[in-house]
Amino acid sequence: MSDDAVLLDVENGVATMTLNKPEVRNALTAELSHAIIDTIDDLETRDDVRCLVVTGQEGTFCAGGDINSMVERMSGDMPLHDAVRNIQQVTSRAVRRVYEFHRPTVAKVDGAAFGAGGNLAIACDCLVASERARIGFGFRQVGLAVDSGTSYLLPRIVGENVAKELVFTGELLDAERASELGIFNHVYEDFDAEAEEFVASIAEGPSVALETSKRLIEQGLSSDLKQAQDDEAAAQAAVFATHDHEEGATAFMESRSPEFEGSSAV
Prior knowledge:
Blueprint: E1 6-11, E2 14-19, H1 30-43, E3 51-56, H2 67-74, H3 80-100, E4 105-109, E5 112-114, H4 116-122, E6 126-130, E7 134-136, H5 150-158, H6 160-169, E8 172-174, H7 175-180, E9 186-188, H8 191-203, H9 207-220, H10 225-240, H11 243-253
Parallel strand pairs: 2-3, 3-4, 4-6, 5-7, 6-9
Antiparallel strand pairs: 1-2, 7-8
């Protein structure tokens, strides 16, 4: 097995980023967080990536923050405030880079996604899970308030009151309950095969249109209806001029399935 903190595989338009620190249950060490940031920075420049999958090595998605590192830094000579800030900055940036990736993202959750690891999962656009997947935001278990984006990401999925309950109780949700709350989009029995099929259905789509739709939905969360409609109208003009729109319209008229290339302007 590679010693790299992150493993990257790109095939058929799907970039799979695998967290590869199984000895700490893929906890967000500084090394792993920097590797996530660097990997996504690289992927942003590539034209062959139409969808990003985030997953973890050896049956754990991500166990959260690196508690050992926190203890070591806070017991050192650095002032407590500075130590906490330094730890949070890199972890939070890793979560944010996943959230800000311009193409569709899918968290493939097998095993536990806890604390900051839960945030890394819900920073993705869609979450698919195995039947043994678990997710929780139990910062209270280590006597901490929420961090790395919980206060922004979680209420947008489950609502304010449910987000507060999950944080106050520290409940570790099983796959079925997380699905009921809308955190997991799908829970699969044949996890790898069904997750691959789901991801392929996204990667085979019109990438410019999907990227634009992702941006519009995110903007729409903080705008009124008129502004959202105006933004859509402005964006649609650009998407209309893509090869994939031409192919989609032609395929519709010919009553066949479109074969999108992920291309931009005609």
